[in-house]
Predict the structure of DDE Tnp4 domain-containing protein.
Amino acid sequence: MVQKSDIWIRFPISCEDLHNAKNNWQEKFNFPSAIGAIDCTHIPILKPFIHADEYVNRKKFASINVQATCNLNEEFTSVDVSWPGSVHDSRIWKNSDIYNVMKWNRASAVLLGDAGYCIAPWLMTPFMILETVEHRSYNRLFTRERAIIERCFVQLKERFPILHNKIRVDTEKVLSLVMSCFILHNVAKHLNDEDFAVDIPGDGEQEEIHNGVIRQRGQFRRDAMSRIIHGFRV
């Protein structure tokens, strides 16, 4: 099953694919230049014997921290199941293949991520301080459209209840099992299977300077987007 992941879980890579993903998003939603949303979800597992503490997350249970992105059709476009539960979402993001795809994309495409991520020109996050009406308009639209990734996770776990509880198999097998669930979710979407009801609940000085520049560029772009979005009167 896992060998089929590249068939069923695909992230837009080329400039043409990214432009198409942007256009598709605009057919259903309104956030400028968006192609999808990103987030992580914890899957409970048995505490491994090796490197056990690395798997204990901030809520004090053993898990793997799975990063995923989704598109407007509530299909997963990328999934990374390789990280233990103690690893922060932002570290997983910066070490992922899609980080570089988005960083160097020439289509000006963006993903929508929550406040746990650092803003960048290719990753929009919410305003933490709402200083203007434009900021409030931005956050309303952002929150509404980013929620799609939360819906995907809820649908996934309702479709495969094993992901709700502690998976009692070896860690190596857990990764394959979890990835298989993500693949089958996309297969179910492709077959128009009925969805379940959803109720959404730095290293070193030079890197700090570099991250500061990225944050500033991301903030400039977010400010520009907030002015555009305010014109929608959302």
Summary: The two ends are 42 Å apart (CA to CA).
